[in-house]
Amino acid sequence: MASPSDVEMTQFGEIDKSKDRYPCCIVWTPIPILTWLFPFIGHMGVCLSSGIIRDFAGPYYVSQDNMAFGRPTKYWQLKPALAYGGITGWDRAVTEASEIYSGRMHNLFCDNCHSHVATALNLMQYDNSKSWNMVKLAFLMLIYSKYVSFCGFVKTWLPFLFLVTLIVLVSVLA
Fold first, then answer.
1. Is residue 1 part of a domain?
2. How far is Cα of residue 56 from the mean position of the Cα atoms in its chain?
3. pTM passes above 0.85
4. Please, what is the Cα angle at 61 between 57 and 66, to 5 degrees?
């Protein structure tokens, strides 16, 4: 059983961090090397109202509850009432986006995990918008997300801080 600090009540379900259940959330995890250099860039997934994570993990493959680069370190809980059709519309759009991306080639720069999440939000017309894209999502995730735990924060920022410190030390000592 999860401790009270691991579980947050919501109007449509519980966030259970110990079981990686994030109802109606966008989740994020670092990508080794890429996130070490650019800590605002990482791997993204979108969750059903049940909290099950869906992420575009590679060419022609949408993973379920097994993110390509590990457990989420950050999450941003959205309001399913802002999706066309409410919770039902949310789940339908996440499922449809996952079906679409199960038939697509992965492209790091143009058609990736962020695009998968943006497609889901566009299909559900989240917040009366069809203008979701990977750049907007990366920016908003940076602003509105919460870390799953202190360890999630460390996993995201420690490698970057280590590299910056190393570069500064080398440049000072050179």
1. no
2. 11
3. yes
4. 50
CA distance 52 to 17: 12
pLDDT at 8 over 60: no
**102-123 burial: b if 16+ Cβ within 10 Å, else e:** eebebeeeebbbbbbbbbbbbb
Contact 13, 51 (CB under 8 A): yes
Give the separation between CA 117 and CA 46, rounded to whole angstroms. Answer: 6
Q: Give the residue carrying structure tokens 């970057």.
A: 160
Measured over the CA atoms of residue 127, residue 131, residue 132 and residue 137, the dihedral's sign is negative
**Each residue of 33-85: pLDDT tens digit?**
999 999 989 999 999 999 999 999 999 999 999 999 999 999 999 999 999 99
Residue 106 token pair = 């992965």
Three-class SS of residue 111?
A: strand
Q: Are 9 and 126 in contact (CB under 8 A)?
A: no
In a domain, 2, yes or no: no
Q: Is residue 132 part of a domain?
A: yes
- pLDDT for 1 beyond 70: no
Kindly state whether residue 162 falls inside one of the protein's structural domains: yes
Q: Which residue has the tokens 């360890």?
A: 151
Per the structure, how many domains does the chain have?
Answer: 1
For residue 12, what pLDDT is reported? 62
Give the structural domain span for 107: 7-173
Check whether 5 has a pLDDT greater than 60: no
